[in-house]
TrEMBL record:
PANTHER family linked to this entry: 3-OXOACYL-[ACYL-CARRIER-PROTEIN] SYNTHASE, MITOCHONDRIAL, POLYKETIDE SYNTHASE-RELATED
Enzyme Commission identifier(s): 2.3.1.179
InterPro entries xrefs: Beta-ketoacyl_synthase, Ketoacyl_synth_C, Ketoacyl_synth_N, PKS_Beta-ketoAc_synthase_dom, Thiolase-like
Residue stretches spanning the membrane: none
Domain Ketosynthase family 3 (KS3): 10-423
Organism the protein comes from: Kaistia nematophila
Record pathway: Lipid metabolism; fatty acid biosynthesis
UniProt-recorded name of the protein: Beta-ketoacyl-ACP synthase
Cross-referenced Gene3D superfamilies: 3.40.47.10
GO CC annotation: cytosol
Pfam families on file: ketoacyl-synt, Ketoacyl-synt_C
Family classification: Belongs to the thiolase-like superfamily. Beta-ketoacyl-ACP synthases family.
Entry keywords, A to Z: Acyltransferase, Transferase
SUPFAM superfamilies to which the protein is assigned, alphabetical: Thiolase-like (SSF53901)
Amino acid sequence: MGKTRDHLGRPVVAVTGMGVVTSLGQGIDDNWSALTSGKSGIHRITRFPVDHLRTTMAGTVDFLFDEAPRSAVLTEKLAELAAEEAIARAKIGTPGDFPGMLFMAVPPVELDWSVKRDLYDKGDAGVSDPYDRMIESAMTLNDPDTYEYALYACVADKTADRFGTRGAPISLSTACASGATAIQLGVEAIRRGDTEAALCIGTDGSVQVESLIRFSLLSALSTNNEDPAAASRPFSKNRDGFVMAEGAGALVLEDYDAAVARGAEILAVIRGAAEQADDFHRTRSKPDGSPVIGAMRQALGDAGIALDEVDYINAHGTSTPENDKMEALSLEAVFGENVKKIPISSNKSMIGHTLTAAGAIEAVFSIQTIRSGVIPPTINHDVADPSISLDVVPNVARTAPVSMVLSNSFGFGGQNACLVIAAGPA
């Protein structure tokens, strides 16, 4: 029996497991039921005081904890929950012994303000410089837990230990494209023959007061605080910014032949992956959209498919004025007039923007779209933007056969990643 290869002679990469946690709930079933019902997971923040902040809502996962832990601990816990579901679905390996590599998208790590303040308070009052006082305090206290969670690779290291992945765990952060980048690295490792399996995770538990203030200072966040559920309005004329959110998505990837040989259920195939970056601005997208256009075209080329084979586009769709316009113009540039016939929706209208985790979570939802034949809607689309002529599946889910999805992820700093996900190999 011949080996299964793609149009470039590379091993086909199958998805055999997936897991997800968002503000809508824990697990595929709860999330999918809420997502296809048009339910929003955005609500007023109760984790910390917000009375004097410009933005007071987010998509937090408060249902998981009585009191939310520090952001790095929460990021790790979300990854663990998503990975447990994905590995259980894949029925691969034995508990604590995953037979492949770990690729993990994590947010930039630093100590929360509350931890810094605690260290400062415990420091020597005779040390005048606040930073030196914190460092001195940390060294004196000999606090391994605080030290570990200040390390960039900590979350991936702990996840690797928890699931027994092989080799050095890879931590990466390409802003809001990170989750898709983690999947791309897993795909490329399997194609190269480095591993027959990969655990790819995007996770983010960053909704803390400092991150909220920083994004607010960039004027990136919605301020529609009166109606949190309606705050995320991708592609609508009255969109005013994205809504921060938390969550994690995980995929188990395998060499297609190896998965079939062990009797695994093939959930989908990652047919194409690509990324392009630019150095235009630290936060703004390049106005002509050329890196985004290039990433989409490269992903479609990597998949070896024609434009008319794409049945659905899972848009980045952040609900910021600039991003949505740029993505719409870029889609028109790639697909031409045919783009008006392709259903395009944004999961962020319901779950908010999960930042580092977004690309992985949306890959999970793209696969579920293929498997269920139901396209999640873009909710809160009550005021159409006349400059955006896309079929955004407004407000109500749609039943339609879907066998090929383009999933877009575009990050601050011009970091763009696209995935092409299919029902099966060519």
